[in-house]
């Protein structure tokens, strides 16, 4: 089996990959991704590709001949808005004021880059969508949650796995997809392609 590299600095993605028993190393991306698409399922696939591609190029420059790289990206989509990580506390409050009491979608795009000795790298990209329904939050509750600091490194300014669980009414789809990596689908995609 080739080396498996997770192209991510996200502690949640590391934890999820570990949970399914995959042995891997981490090489986080350094570059700022460039978004050229506008639909959420296109954005997450494009950005996950860029993350996997950056680490694939780095390894190739280092003379590595065979490896598998996994890149992922998550956004929240509500009505016609696409939300990444909040830029400020104010931004986080705005996002949560929109999401509370409503149903939104979480999209995670994943790119698997597979490189074999003397072969060009092959890229596989897919996405998963999960619907998340939230209970209403008062503006005081939104402020208190933002002040906890939890929203700042998370798409849509909340963590379903953290304190925000108090406001989650239900989901339709893969829970792990909301946390940042749809490991069930990822495992199956890797198994189908003999990458495990
Ligand atoms: C909606 C939601 C998102 N998130 C996280 C998952 C992602 O880590 C983050 C979205 O940011 P991303 O830009 O997808 O990823 P990242 O910057 O954390 O990590 P990297 O680019 O190095 O891989 O939001 C949660 O942890 N819980 C949630 O409920």
TrEMBL record:
Its main location: cytoplasm. Transmembrane segments: none annotated. SUPFAM superfamilies: ITPase-like. The active site is at 73 (proton acceptor). Its EC number is 3.6.1.9. The keyword Thylakoid does not apply. Pfam families: Maf (PF02545). It catalyses: dTTP + H2O = dTMP + diphosphate + H(+); UTP + H2O = UMP + diphosphate + H(+). It is found in: Cytoplasm. The record marks 12, 74, 161 as: Important for substrate specificity. InterPro entries: ITPase-like_fam (IPR029001), Maf-like (IPR003697). Its cofactor is a divalent metal cation. Gene3D superfamilies: 3.90.950.10. GO terms for molecular function: hydrolase activity. Belongs to the Maf family. YhdE subfamily. Nucleoside triphosphate pyrophosphatase that hydrolyzes dTTP and UTP. May have a dual role in cell division arrest and in preventing the incorporation of modified nucleotides into cellular nucleic acids. This is dTTP/UTP pyrophosphatase. It comes from Kineothrix sedimenti. The lineage of its organism: Bacteria, Bacillati, Bacillota, Clostridia, Lachnospirales.
